[in-house]
Amino acid sequence: MKGIKKEGWISYKADGMFSFLWQKRYLILNDSYLLFYKNDRLNEEPVLSVALTSISNVSRIQLKQNCFEILRAADQRDNLSAINSYFYESNSKRSIFVSTGTERDLHGWLDAIFAKCPLLSGVSSPTNFTHKVHVGFDPKMGNFVGVPDGWAKLLQTSEITYDDWNRNSKAVIKALQFYEDYNGLDTIQSEKQTHTSLGLKPLKSPTKYIVNKRSNSIKRSLSKTLRKNKTDSILPAYQSELKPFPRSFENNNSVTSIKNSKLYDEDGMHVSKDYVAYLQTKQLEKREQQAIQQHFRRHDSNAILKPHRAAPSAPIAKDHDGGIKAPTEDLLELKDAGDFDEIIMKMKTVAIDVNPRPYFQMIEKAGQGASGAVYLSKRIKLPQENDLRFLNSHCHRIVKERVAIKQIHLSKQPKKQLIMNELLVMNDSHHENIVNFLEAYIIDDEELWVIMEYMEGGCLTDILDAAAGSNDGKKSSALNESQISYIVRETCQGLKFLHGNNIIHRDIKSDNILLNSRGLVKITDFGFCVELTEKRSKRATMVGTPYWMAPEIVNQKQYDEKVDVWSLGIMLIEMIEGEPPYLNEDPLKALYLIANNGSPRLRHAELVSNKTRQFLDACLPVKVEMRASVRKLLTFEFLSLACGPEEFKLAIKWR
Ligand SMILES: Nc1ncnc2c1ncn2[C@@H]1O[C@H](COP(=O)(O)OP(=O)(O)OP(=O)(O)O)[C@@H](O)[C@H]1O
């Protein structure tokens, strides 16, 4: 039999005529039904089949040891004897009682049934007594019910449908959790105790997320804004506190304590396994943040960021052909967050503490980032002799060279540690496919100037946008296959370098690929980089930009350097089709689709060569162990299609 989710022997009785009789049955859960068979040979019709859509509640009950009750709506299709018809007359709900051999088995059944029943939350697996949290859909009202108000509002304004919920309610929940975290929303905490359904006025979507209602170019620029806003909206874990359990769930269940890592509601009952995981992730992220700040205090000028967190039962990454190194140090003790002065002090281990204005002449603004503006400048003087010791010996500096200067007002930055992160990674990462960091200055402990090589071609997104704009809104690639192959190869080389140094970039996308007038392609934006060690070869922090995000990040699982490979695959689709998958969807729906849909596909796969398709297929398996490492990708035939920098240089328009 196909689609079996769980099966095994149980005892059961239904209410009705023979309600005193416990009968041994072989129970099967598939995608649509709970089927009760007389034996495990399944050679007869089931004695009872219960449509999962009819199940309105499942709860543990003290009727018998290891027992739960399934409450389902009466179904006209039920074959009722006259006696049983009489029995059920006044009751539109029916109960089935199931008793399992062991406590463990009971939990297994509860989890499996909750995961599959559309009228149940999919998020809850009660382990003791009565399960009180229901999330479902009211077909009459056309609304989701039983969800926290904040989620209700988000669902209302999103394009997530009942069908989506029915298909994979877990993915919807994951998307909601992720969306909230990503935006630093606190819908759950801010809610009142009253339970409401989704019959609410639509919440005004956050401006940065109105990406689905616009024309392609506006959409893209808005999505760019969204991407640019990431330092405001991402890494909420770095600032968020542990949130209480949603207080507006039905029956006003609220979690009041965390005892022995298990969640209890006010009655001391266990609730929602997913929420336990969710809140534990929150705690871990908070600890990670503390660890990062602790690290800054200890940081010496030659080290790169080493966030330290005890990853939850971190498995060792199996595919380590990307050159993950041996562990570098043990977990640091976790202490309180460092303050502004400490961050400045640490920045000064990398940046020169002098006013650099006399050394540079500003020419024009080259771009605007979330943390500050980037200027094209000319070096007109070298720093003083005694400051030269701070200058990285990798870089040769000459008067009259053109440089990019990123000016950051530190006091205005909500996420100074990200800037620090970027500085440290750039200082240590010198490679021809990484934007070259030259030096940095701190002015009056207020302003940070990061001096980089100037990439006059701007970012890859601009090239893709220019093509979209010049083609009457029709999406087509600005680049031919050999140019795309070239960009991918260069990006892979940069990633190989980073991964070989245990660094995950975590935000690979066209915005973070810069081009120069020699046709060179380089990775930039290291704010979200993180270092892996063998002990912590998988991480669980949520970073990146939604549309490029790997499913394991959206699903809040542990992850490793392969998230960059996924993002590279999405960037490849972006280059072929002009935009990443799901850009037309609202972000919440996009997150749901990433979590649920598996590998995204090209809209017109027939338009690209087999080599390109093979490469893409290697980048985008949902199963991480099936996804190629960057080292492996570099052997793919697709990269042999690459043109040279000269040809590439001629093909792209310079600003
Ligand atoms: N080295 C460079 N050479 C030329 N232009 C650059 C350089 N670095 C950045 N830019 C331009 O400046 C824009 C903003 O860059 P920045 O790195 O600040 O962006 P961001 O990643 O969105 O911001 P942030 O790092 O503050 O989050 C880029 O989109 C790019 O066009």
TrEMBL record:
Using the record's annotation, list all stretches that form the PH domain.
Answer: 3-118
Q: Which domain of life is it from?
A: Eukaryota
Q: Does the keyword Magnesium apply?
A: yes
- List the Pfam families: PBD (PF00786), PH (PF00169), Pkinase (PF00069)
Write down the EC number: 2.7.11.1
GO-annotated molecular function: ATP binding; metal ion binding; protein serine kinase activity; protein serine/threonine kinase activity
Q: Which cofactor does it need?
A: Mg(2+)
Q: Which reaction does it catalyse?
A: L-threonyl-[protein] + ATP = O-phospho-L-threonyl-[protein] + ADP + H(+); L-seryl-[protein] + ATP = O-phospho-L-seryl-[protein] + ADP + H(+)
The UniProt family comment states: Belongs to the protein kinase superfamily. STE Ser/Thr protein kinase family. STE20 subfamily.
Protein name, as recorded: non-specific serine/threonine protein kinase
Q: Give the classification, highest ranks.
A: Eukaryota, Fungi, Dikarya, Ascomycota, Saccharomycotina
